[in-house]
Amino acid sequence: MPRPISATVHLSALHHNLVAVRDRVSYANSKIWSVVKANAYGHGLARVWRCLEKTDGFALLDLNDAVLLREQGWQKPILLLEGFFKTEDLALIDHYNLTTVVHSDWQLAALENAKLKKPVEVYLKFNSGMNRLGFPCEEAHEIWQRAKQIANIKHLTLMSHFANAAHNGNIDNEYRFIQQNCQSIPADCSSLANSAVILWHPSVYTSPINNLSNNNLSHFCHWVRPGIMLYGASPNGQVQAIKDLGLRPAMSLHSELLAVQTLKAGDTVGYGSHYRANEAQRIGIVACGYADGYPRNAPTGTPILVEGVLTKTLGAVSMDMLAVDLKPCPHAQVGSIVELWGNHLPIDDVAMAAGTISYELMCALSARVPVSFITDGE
Ligand SMILES: *Cc1c(COP(=O)(O)O)cnc(C)c1O
């Protein structure tokens, strides 16, 4: 028998979540880039993209992933979120008809000098305060004019990515900064909204950032960029924040109890003896550790389900195992099913207890964990 750990990807949940995003943004006529970077947030790009095929486009980072989608038959837009990495990449962008972010001078120069078969769609990225990628907002007008003159560019979309849409929830300064600097840019398309903006800052995608004339207003188009919400988790780590939308978790992780121990008062558990029993106590040993992608930082008290009963981890997580308290589930025994996260235990709650975010847990699911893909309602 294989080791009893396995992950399940709920394909119908992905489809359901995309529909929920569509419902949310459709009154603004927004289009959707489904963000599938990092192997679709750990869910497996090659297997899951078809559940999201009602999207308007896929956004990702790696050219290989873009080629994979094209080879599997996706013909609609693909956006390279970090743009191209080397000038040579432009040949593939041309060949596979990809939309690319342009965030730096060298990329504009490369486009000025390239010999392409046809012009490409470009997302000009401006830095609204994250200070990772993007042209300085103060130079927005000048950069836009320069880009507009490049024959290899077909159409320009104005793009930015906010630093605080989820965290302190206040993007007023970032938004105002980019609005002030981009007012005079004749963009008819913008893309500013990740999941947190979609959820909590709808004015960003319901009205243009610049002063479009009434004539052009009817052509205004916003492309939202949902990632985490498609996978059924919350951008701010709080599961109640996404309750209203009825998002469904797309990933669950299950294992079993490999062993049961009965501790005496004073006995300790795991490396470093971080947990000490103060009375007799039954504990279970779960076949899941940090080499499976479970967070090693998860402290004693991290929520976990045994036979559907909520309990907690005890002591340090080791490479292949972790320990759980069996007090709330006295009937649990070797072979009992354990849910590490999933439909009955939000990944957000586990991430929160471990001092991280659901994004990291999804992406960290390790290659040694077998994944099954199911399409039922569960
Ligand atoms: C990852 C990413 C997104 C999606 O963010 P979520 O918080 O997962 O919705 C959107 N835009 C850019 C530029 C990204 O890198």
Automatic annotation (TrEMBL):
Pathway linked to the protein: Amino-acid biosynthesis; D-alanine biosynthesis; D-alanine from L-alanine: step 1/1
Protein EC: 5.1.1.1
InterPro entries: Ala_racemase, Ala_racemase/Decarboxylase_C, Ala_racemase_C, Ala_racemase_N, Ala_racemase_pyridoxalP-BS, PLP-binding_barrel, Ser/Thr_deHydtase_PyrdxlP-BS
Residues annotated as binding substrate: 132, 319
Modified residues annotated as N6-(pyridoxal phosphate)lysine in this record: 37
Residue span(s) of domain Alanine racemase C-terminal: 250-374
Entry's family note: Belongs to the alanine racemase family.
Its job: Catalyzes the interconversion of L-alanine and D-alanine. May also act on other amino acids. Isomerizes L-alanine to D-alanine which is then oxidized to pyruvate by DadA.
Name of the protein: Alanine racemase
Gene this protein is translated from: dadX
